[in-house]
Design goal:
The protein has six helices and no strands. By secondary structure, the chain is mainly α. The chain has one domain. α1 packs antiparallel against α6 and α4 runs antiparallel to α5. The protein is globular and about 50 Å long. The protein starts with a helix and ends with a helix. The relative contact order is 0.15.
């Protein structure tokens, strides 16, 4: 086994070991899966808009894929929370009723997966 392969395997094991408890993990997935579906829809809609919406749509599609990827789900939730902060700033007044609650949900998801984010960060730094 090469050094790179060994490092990737060790990183995946560390991230897997950092998973939350079984019930918490189940509840997080129960929220992540429908949110990923919604953000695929949002992302595709924004890709058709052009300009800054193309950037937002790309970020939303990447976040949706990340939410469904076990070792990236916490980082994807944090990224989508940041995306929702940007959306709140850009659409101030018109869509705040949607963007702020979504931001809060993504912050909670990232918090629930914080140990996985730390393990991923440690694996990247090696």
């Amino acid at each position: 086994m090469t050094t790179t392969t060994a490092r990737v395997t060790a990183a995946r094991q560390a991230i897997r070991a950092a998973r939350p408890r079984r019930l918490t993990n189940l509840l997080l997935w129960a929220a992540q899966i429908p949110l990923a579906a919604v953000f695929v829809f949002f992302g595709l809609a924004h890709l058709r808009g052009g300009g800054i919406y193309t950037v937002a749509g790309t970020a939303e599609l990447a976040g949706a894929i990340g939410l469904l990827t076990p070792w990236l789900s916490g980082l994807a939730a944090a990224g989508l929370a940041a995306d929702m902060v940007g959306a709140t700033i850009i659409t101030y007044g018109s869509m705040v009723w949607l963007t702020l609650p979504l931001c809060a949900v993504f912050v909670l998801l990232a918090y629930g997966r914080r140990q996985q984010i730390k393990a991923l960060w440690a694996a990247i730094r090696r």
